[in-house]
Amino acid sequence: VKIAVAYDRAFCFYYEDNLNLLSEMGAEIVKFSPLENESVPQCDGLILGGGYPELYADILEKNTGTLNSVKECVESGVPCIAECGGFMYLHDTIFDSEKKPYKMAGVIHACCMKKERLVRFGYLTLNSKTDSFLKKGETIRGHEFHYYDSEDNGECAIAKKPVGTRSWECVHAGSDHWWGFAHLSYYSNPKFAEKFAEACRSYKINKIAEKK
């Protein structure tokens, strides 16, 4: 299966171990650049990683070729993971530090805005409330570090800090997607990567069947 990965200055935060694990499972990683207005390449899966889309929001807004291709890709059912900056990119709007709005992909009908201090910071464990790339009740570890927040962080998982009692709802998830602020460590639960890869294979098989 081919997995398209957004990769440039705006989307540059990835755990290489995560991509390597997907490669070991048989995936071909194909990178593309939203800053260069490159459309999502033909793929069976899509990953929008973390980074700094807010610093390049003016360029990203003008690059409608990429924005439209991302939206079409997601809405066609291509399995998609979006983390932090990639999660922000899927929103209707990102407001920069001067509170100027910029249109993004329009998949999540909400906006992202900068806050005065770190919103959520540090390690966490995510417990899935629904079946997605994790079964209900399964967990995966990750971390958050961001000054931006969303009007709609989702409610498909419970994030819990490793120390103390703090927890909160987050993540948009389903059989073909997982979108949220947390950067995930696939090796903390390889089943997540396996299920994502399986979803990509199923998508590919269904597309081949449709062509016949």
Fraction of residues in H or I helices: 25-40%
Average per-residue pLDDT, rounded, comes to: 96
SSE string: EHEEHHEHEEEEEEEEEEEH
**Share in β-strands:** 25-35%
Count of alpha/pi helices = 5
The counted number of beta strands is: 15
Low-confidence blocks of residues? none
Structural class: alpha/beta
- Tell me the major beta sheet: 6 strands, mixed
Largest sheet strand order:
2-1-3-4-14-13
- What Rg is obtained from the alpha carbons, in whole angstroms? 16 Å
What does this structure look like?
The chain is an alpha/beta fold and 212 residues long. The chain is 25% helix and 33% strand. Strands 2-1-3-4-14-13 form a six-stranded mixed beta sheet. A five-stranded antiparallel beta sheet has the order 12-11-8-9-15, with no helix packed on it. Strands 6-5-7-10 form a four-stranded mixed beta sheet. The chain is globular and about 55 Å long. The two termini are 19 Å apart. The model has no long low-confidence stretch (mean pLDDT 96).
